[in-house]
């Protein structure tokens, strides 16, 4: 049932100052170009959605036309910063009390819109219809509430990784995020507003309300108000969290003196809610009654949800509605109830953006002609508020903020993202090796580490735009924003789903982009690429002089040595900053000698004696020495063996990782020096594809569609993943359905310590699926 | 969950006269030969069961031995009246307040018993254990409550035709009795005591508590008491039957202005129980009681339906003190079941639901006598019958039900089964007209039987010309039968 109910009377009782000033660059961003509005007005909160275009800078690389511009420089390519327009969805949530101020603000800042209609949903939509039409001059077009809710739910489940979570009050981390499932259907949505609606969702367009109950949030609120004289919903929850239900409820042991063994009922089970209150002579504390009521309602809903789930054979049950929304008390009792009734067979799942579902759905209804479901979308960490801490006492300041404005921004990705077809089990694949939300020590280290590195990143960003006078200001804004995010994450590790090294890196990239630093490392990459190219032929020549056996080993050592050059690792960037002459040979000397920390080189070597692979997919890492002197000679060898090679590099910049654009140019100039590479390109045995990612890490479940297609067409039977970000922070445990090689040098002493190694330890993990024999010489503890 | 709860404190508040005199020939019949006792002590009512033998006259016919007794008469056979001893089960229900008086009475009238044990069940059994042992000199042997309940339920379903009924408040007849099914299993029993137990019964000995809920009779009572300051369960039900829930509950139309067509929700559907209370200024006791009753009945109804569907059961019986003889709760539960299953599942109630525990406890104790081997028949002469449940209809009758209520079952000498040639045994109804549903026919036949009574009395008297006390017995018969006819006129069920 609807979340509306009579909520406004309680908020209006709080006479709020409606003349707040809105910080425009933070709250209603990109309004100028906004089009397509949707609004979801609930009982107490309004959610406004709009679609806008964002203009921001992107770094592009372009080969110099050597014919015409011969003398200018010895650089291989030129870097230009271009303006690009991308689509972004904005969602803002605020209390109904601010609706007039917000509508005024929107009207004043709308510049280029030809929109005539605003889609509206939620029980409060008709109440504010006239106001919206008058303020915005748009026609209010009502959309069905349940349809919007389901559409929104499908959208977030499909597009936001770690959208759904399990709540575990007493676990190390309150939230356990679920990996995105390739197929989100079917599922059960239990929406607990005033009443309860239980909806079975079978596909994008097919859903059915299979059940419901009148015992819902409104019952908790209404009965609670009658019993305790407390009229505020939040206060009732507070009361409930402090109460003792055993003085009000009759337990099994109150009847039988203990458990009722033959029926399997424990003594502490509630036999009758409020069962003691009929005969009590004295009154009960408010807290106890509120607690008893909460248990009664949560248990009831939990049982109904379980029964419907079983009856319809559904294992995924999501809970939403104002009764749940961000309230740890209700999430806990619902979770407890579901566990009790299904004995763990069904998990209670909650959604990070549950409050936005209606607005998202209404927006999507209005935007159907733009086919939003054709695209992939990604949450923009820079513009989104993240999940609030839900422990009521933990962070009151943050909660206060959540009481005013909360935001979600989604960027439309240029290309559709899909699973790597070679994943052994896409539904159980988890990219990240360590969930920092669950590992307090690791979290502390990495948050510290990223904060330490921040000054360096700011410096680098500034240096990348030497002739832009306002860059200093933007760099400072970036610093503040990212530092604030880190602080938020310190207190709310779950703000953006699972906290991982990857999400920390991605958040930094989003923030840099937000302040128009699209590629701070572009100049460094350019310099290193140019330098490395000069050594290419020499490296290839020396490799060719080795025996076959020696060469195989030297090639692997070359890839590993190249991988030392990583500006993302502080240990290395310090060396690179202080020793400009630090080169390939120096890097080789830094490497750990065999046996490596993880060492299955012998198995790999044996494998090389066998028939060549059909096709190798290589996820590459850094620019410069890494790609040119490490990876390319190895690729050359594979091609010589008769193996086709697909090189996958980032679609957009991240640190000093080589981008697809750069790699195109580099490969061409290598081809000009090396007939093997040239033949490979010409015969289409060497292919360059973009990964779809702009992260230093790698999520094999969100890869560019073209990559997936090529992989399938070429019958790829070997996947090579290189670098700490892609092979250790992520994918270390990824199981593939073909042979795989994970290679990385550990350039972080803390991580090395964790894995039982030391700085510059080597991970060389060659795995063969299902064959059964142990391919791993050493497993990190 | 158990029906016990803390009910006694409310009954004990009614200081009842415990020194009532019991009319022995009506209440504890055939105590002299009683053996095998069982007792089920609930929150407010005690149910006592015993097995006894009854000596009564039977008419026999015998052929004359024509060879030896040739000249005496030209009659084909002779008629003789003989004494026969048959087995009978007695069940008596009375308020817990009378328990001491009753135990005293039983002790004083027990003559020929070698029983050493009394089977006991119910949440109150342990409370009165010491009293029973002292008064009766029998050892109290506790039996599992749920097992007794199920055993009792199986027994009445198998042995009492028209035990189960459907309740329809606004129909011509409030009760629609079900024909006895040749196979009573499987079924679902929803016992609504303080809490709710949902039990799947698959065979005589196999049952499982597949679900339950803490929102039951105790919740209605407890929350009701907190909200209305009314501490009596019956009064709460009275309040509820008068109230208007729409000023407390939020309906679909309160949210959407009408029905929510695309989801198939009508405007009058309750969207949120007590949904208006958070913002309402006025509170009315009866409105809240009504809303609470709806909330609880609907919830139990929905749970029962879901469990029935999940386990593929079509027969769902409701019992427990929340239901027991209360038309208000039978009505709301029935409504809820109809709503949730769209008529696929019917809410069934039991005429002797209050006796199930006592019957079961008795059967546990009598297992060596193999009671399930026999067929039993309700003795209409000794049983009180189902009370009219319309609260205002017959207050006098209700008052009596508050004191003593009886069920007697005669053991039939031979086991009765279906005629194997019935086309469909489960739908077979022996009677052509159900007088309960046909008021005109009922009136006629009741009148007819009353008219005929004098003739029957005359005939009875004439059959025993040489028995001097026959006149007195014939008069007693006349009174009893006329009373039954009068009762049936008011309570056709």
TrEMBL record, chain A:
It comes from the Eukaryota. Its cofactor is Ni(2+); Mn(2+). GO terms for cellular component: cytosol; nucleus. GO terms for biological process: coenzyme A biosynthetic process. Its main location: cytoplasm. One of its GO terms (molecular function) is metal ion binding. It is found in: Cytoplasm. InterPro entries: ARMT-1-like_metal-bd_sf, ARMT1-like_metal-bd, At2g17340_3_helix_bundle, ATPase_NBD, PanK_long, Type_II_PanK. The keyword Phosphoprotein applies. Transmembrane segments: none annotated. It catalyses: (R)-4'-phospho-S-sulfopantetheine + H2O = (R)-S-sulfopantetheine + phosphate; (R)-4'-phosphopantetheine + H2O = (R)-pantetheine + phosphate; (R)-4'-phosphopantetheine sulfonate + H2O = (R)-pantetheine sulfonate + phosphate. Pfam families: ARMT1-like_dom, Fumble. Signal peptide: none annotated. Keywords: Acetylation, ATP-binding, Coenzyme A biosynthesis, Cytoplasm, Hydrolase, Manganese, Metal-binding, Nickel, Nitration, Nucleotide-binding, Phosphoprotein. The keyword Metal-binding applies. Belongs to the type II pantothenate kinase family. NCBIfam families: panK_eukar (TIGR00555). Phosphatase which shows a preference for 4'-phosphopantetheine and its oxidatively damaged forms (sulfonate or S-sulfonate), providing strong indirect evidence that the phosphatase activity pre-empts damage in the coenzyme A (CoA) pathway. Hydrolyzing excess 4'-phosphopantetheine could constitute a directed overflow mechanism to prevent its oxidation to the S-sulfonate, sulfonate, or other forms. Hydrolyzing 4'-phosphopantetheine sulfonate or S-sulfonate would forestall their conversion to inactive forms of CoA and acyl carrier protein. This is 4'-phosphopantetheine phosphatase. The lineage of its organism: Eukaryota, Metazoa, Chordata, Craniata, Vertebrata.
Automatic annotation (TrEMBL), chain B:
It comes from the Eukaryota. One of its GO terms (molecular function) is pantothenate kinase activity. Pfam families: Fumble. Its cofactor is Mn(2+). One of its GO terms (biological process) is coenzyme A biosynthetic process. NCBIfam families: panK_eukar. This is Pantothenate kinase 4 (inactive). It comes from Cyclopterus lumpus (Lumpsucker).
């Amino acid at each position: 049932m609807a979340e509306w109910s009579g909520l406004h009377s309680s908020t209006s009782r709080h006479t709020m100052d409606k003349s707040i000033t809105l910080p425009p660059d933070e709250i209603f961003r990109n309004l100028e170009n906004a089009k397509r509005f949707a609004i979801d007005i609930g009982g107490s909160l309004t959610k406004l959605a709009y679609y806008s275009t964002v203009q921001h800078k992107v770094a592009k690389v372009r080969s110099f036309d050597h014919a015409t511009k011969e003398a200018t420089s010895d650089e291989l390519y030129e870097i230009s910063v271009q303006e690009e327009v991308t689509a972004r969805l904005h969602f803002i949530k605020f209390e109904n009390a601010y609706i007039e101020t917000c509508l005024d603000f929107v009207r004043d800042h709308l510049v280029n819109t030809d929109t005539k209609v605003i889609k509206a949903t939620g029980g409060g939509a008709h109440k504010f219809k006239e106001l919206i039409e008058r303020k915005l001059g748009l026609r209010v077009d009502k959309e069905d509430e349940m349809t919007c809710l389901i559409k929104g739910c499908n959208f977030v489940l499909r597009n936001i990784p770690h959208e759904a979570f399990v709540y575990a009050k007493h676990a190390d981390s309150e939230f356990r995020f679920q990996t995105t499932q390739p197929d989100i259907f079917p599922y059960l949505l239990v929406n607990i507003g005033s009443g309860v609606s239980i909806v079975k969702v079978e596909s994008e367009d097919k859903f059915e309300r299979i059940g419901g109950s009148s015992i819902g949030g409104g019952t908790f609120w209404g009965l609670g108000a009658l019993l305790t004289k407390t009229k505020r919903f939040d206060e009732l929850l507070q009361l409930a969290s402090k109460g003792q239900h055993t003085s009000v409820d009759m337990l099994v042991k109150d009847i039988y003196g203990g458990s009722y063994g033959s029926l399997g009922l424990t003594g502490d089970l509630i036999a009758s809610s409020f069962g003691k209150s009929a005969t009590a002579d004295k009154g009960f504390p408010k807290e106890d009654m509120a607690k008893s009521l909460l248990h009664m309602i949560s248990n009831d809903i939990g049982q109904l949800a379980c029964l419907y789930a079983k009856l319809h054979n559904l294992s995924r049950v999501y809970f939403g509605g104002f009764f749940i929304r961000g309230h740890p008390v209700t999430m806990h009792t619902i979770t407890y109830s579901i566990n009790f009734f299904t004995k763990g067979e069904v998990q209670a799942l909650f959604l990070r953006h549950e409050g936005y579902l209606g607005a998202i759905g209404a927006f999507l209804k209005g935007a159907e002609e733009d086919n939003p479901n054709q695209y992939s979308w990604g949450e923009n960490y820079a513009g989104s508020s993240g999940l609030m801490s839900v422990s009521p006492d933990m962070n009151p300041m943050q909660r206060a903020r959540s009481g005013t404005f909360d935001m979600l921004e989604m960027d439309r990705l240029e290309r559709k993202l899909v699973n790597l077809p070679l994943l052994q089990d896409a539904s159980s694949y988890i990219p990240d090796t360590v969930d920092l939300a669950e590992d307090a020590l690791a979290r502390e280290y990495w948050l510290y580490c990223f904060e330490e590195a921040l000054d360096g990143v700011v410096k680098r960003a500034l240096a990348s735009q030497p002739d832009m006078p306002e860059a200093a200001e933007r760099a400072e804004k970036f610093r503040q924003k990212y530092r604030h995010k880190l602080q938020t994450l310190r207190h709310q590790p779950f703000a953006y789903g699972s906290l991982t090294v990857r999400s920390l890196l991605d958040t930094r990239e989003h923030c840099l982009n937000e302040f128009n630093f699209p590629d701070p490392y572009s100049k460094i990459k350019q310099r290193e690429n140019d330098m490395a190219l000069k050594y290419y032929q020499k490296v290839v020549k020396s490799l060719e002089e080795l025996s076959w056996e020696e060469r195989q080993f030297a090639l692997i050592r070359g890839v590993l040595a190249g991988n030392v050059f990583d500006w993302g690792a502080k240990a290395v960037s310090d060396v690179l900053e202080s020793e400009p002459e630090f080169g390939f040979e120096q890097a080789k000397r830094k490497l750990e000698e065999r046996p490596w920390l993880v060492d299955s080189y012998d198995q790999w070597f044996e494998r090389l004696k066998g028939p060549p692979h059909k096709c190798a997919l290589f996820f590459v890492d850094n620019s410069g020495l890494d790609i040119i002197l490490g990876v390319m000679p190895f690729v050359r060898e594979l091609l010589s063996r008769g193996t086709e090679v697909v090189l996958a590099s980032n679609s957009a910049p991240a640190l000093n990782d080589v981008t697809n654009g750069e790699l195109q140019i580099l490969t061409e100039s290598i081809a000009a020096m090396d007939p093997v590479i040239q033949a490979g390109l010409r015969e289409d045995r060497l292919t360059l594809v973009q990964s779809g990612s702009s992260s230093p890490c790698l999520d094999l479940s969100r890869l560019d569609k073209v990559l997936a297609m090529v992989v399938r067409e070429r019958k790829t039977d070997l996947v090579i993943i290189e670098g700490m970000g892609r092979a250790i922070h992520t994918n270390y445990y990824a199981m593939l359905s073909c042979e795989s090689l994970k290679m990385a040098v550990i350039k972080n002493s803390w991580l090395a310590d964790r894995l039982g190694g030391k700085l510059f330890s080597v991970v060389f993990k060659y795995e063969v699926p299902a064959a059964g024999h142990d391919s791993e010489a050493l497993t990190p503890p | 969950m158990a029906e016990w709860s803390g009910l006694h404190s409310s009954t004990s508040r009614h200081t009842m006269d415990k020194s009532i005199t019991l009319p022995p020939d009506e209440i504890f019949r055939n105590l002299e030969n009683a053996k095998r006792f069982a007792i089920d002590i609930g929150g407010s009512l005690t149910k006592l069961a015993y097995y006894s033998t009854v000596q009564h006259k039977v008419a026999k016919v015998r052929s004359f031995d024509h060879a030896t007794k040739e000249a005496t008469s030209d009659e084909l056979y002779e008629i003789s009246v003989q004494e026969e001893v048959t087995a009978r089960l007695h069940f008596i229900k009375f308020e817990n307040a009378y328990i001491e008086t009753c135990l005293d009475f039983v002790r004083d009238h027990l003559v020929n018993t070698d029983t050493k044990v009394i089977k006991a069940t119910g949440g109150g059994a342990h409370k009165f254990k010491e009293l029973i042992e002292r008064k009766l000199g029998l050892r109290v042997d506790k039996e599992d409550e749920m097992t007794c309940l199920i055993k009792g339920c199986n027994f009445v379903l198998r042995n009492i035709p028209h035990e189960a009924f459907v309740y329809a408040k606004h129909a011509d007849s409030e009760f629609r009795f079900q024909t006895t099914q040749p196979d009573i299993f499987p079924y679902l029993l929803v016992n609504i005591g303080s809490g709710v137990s949902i039990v799947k019964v698959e065979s005589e000995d196999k049952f499982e508590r597949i679900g339950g809920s803490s929102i039951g009779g105790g919740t209605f009572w407890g929350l009701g008491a907190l909200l209305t300051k009314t501490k009596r369960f019956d009064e709460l039900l009275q309040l509820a039957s008068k109230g208007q829930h729409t000023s407390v509950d939020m309906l679909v139309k309160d949210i959407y202005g009408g029905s929510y067509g695309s989801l198939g929700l009508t405007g009058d559907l309750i969207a949120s129980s007590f949904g208006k209370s958070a913002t309402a200024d006025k509170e009315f006791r009866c409105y809240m009681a009504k809303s609470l009753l709806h909330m609880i009945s609907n919830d139990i109804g929905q749970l029962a339906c879901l469990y029935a569907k999940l386990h593929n059961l079509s027969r769902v019986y409701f019992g427990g003190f929340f239901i027991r003889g209360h038309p208000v709760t039978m009505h709301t539960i029935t409504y809820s079941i109809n709503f949730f299953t769209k008529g696929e599942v019917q809410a069934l109630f039991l005429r002797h639901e209050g006796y199930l525990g006592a019957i079961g406890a008795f059967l546990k104790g009598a297992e060596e006598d193999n009671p399930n081997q026999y067929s039993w028949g309700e003795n209409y002469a000794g049983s009180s019958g189902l009370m009219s449940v319309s609260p205002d209809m017959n207050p006098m009758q209700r008052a009596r039900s508050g004191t003593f209520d009886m069920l007697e079952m005669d053991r039939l000498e031979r086991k009765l089964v279906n005629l194997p040639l019935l086309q469909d045994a489960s739908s077979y109804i022996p009677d052509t007209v159900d007088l309960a549903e046909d008021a005109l026919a009922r009136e006629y036949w009741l009148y007819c039987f009353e008219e005929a009574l004098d003739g029957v009395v005359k005939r009875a008297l004439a059959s025993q010309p040489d028995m001097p006390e026959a006149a007195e017995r014939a008069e007693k018969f006349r009174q009893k039968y006329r009373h039954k006819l009068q009762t049936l006129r008011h309570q056709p069920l």
